[in-house]
Amino acid sequence: MPKAAASSDADFSHEKLRETTLNNISRLQNTFTTELLTLALFIIITIGAVNDFAFLANLSAPLAAKFGPSPPPDLISAFLILYLFSAIILILSRMMSGSGKAGALSHVGYLTGFYGFYHLAGALKENFWAVCASGLTILILESYHVWTYCSEEIEKEKEILASLERKRE
User: Fold this and answer.
1) pLDDT at 21
2) Percent helix, percent strand, percent coil in the chain, to nearest 5
3) In this model, does residue 55 exceed pLDDT 70?
4) Helices 73-97 and 124-168, packing angle to 10 deg
5) Following CA atoms 24, 27, 29, 33 in sequence, which dihedral angle do they give, to the nearest 10 degrees?
6) CB 3.0-4.6 Å disulfide test: which of 82, 110, 120, 133 passes with 70?
């Protein structure tokens, strides 16, 4: 193979690796941004829960009868505590393993469900702060996990870029 062709192939693979590294950095930055937007979504839902979801229409009597009675608030609280500890353990185990997985959107769904169950049980005012504090604890811990993971991975990608630039010179 002529020397010019080998040089051209090396330049192409060098540029391809550089492009892949820049795409990885962009993906990691987008992952953390998504995590923050999910936290903002929870805050918006929490603002709606402050007024016991007054902006939503109540269930019609036939539909409410079809669903049956809501679970008692004590049972909902027991499940909230179980969910809180389970979520914290899962997040901490992902942090310890160095996993970049994130599940903030599913957490927002579950927490919204707790708001909904308390609303249907007529006990949202009494239990609002329990769900709010649980949600903020879970989501802030999840955001911290994703932030540290993404920051570490971005630094690794920047080191690759710096190495590529040194080889190019």
Assistant:
1) 84
2) 85, 0, 15
3) yes
4) 10
5) -170
6) 120
- Residue 162's pLDDT is what? 86
**106: closest CA among 90, 122, 118?**
90
Whole-angstrom Cα Rg for the chain: 24
How many angstroms separate the CA atoms of 58 and 140, rounded? Answer: 32
* CA dihedral (104, 134, 130, 76) positive or negative: positive
Residues 6+ away with beta carbon under 8 Å from 47: none
Residues 166/127, Cβ–Cβ less than 8 Å? no
- Decide if 22 contacts 164 (C-beta within 8 A): no
pTM, two decimals, is 0.83
What are 5-25's pLDDT values in tens digits? 545 656 667 788 888 888 888
Q: Where are the beta strands (DSSP E) in the chain?
A: none
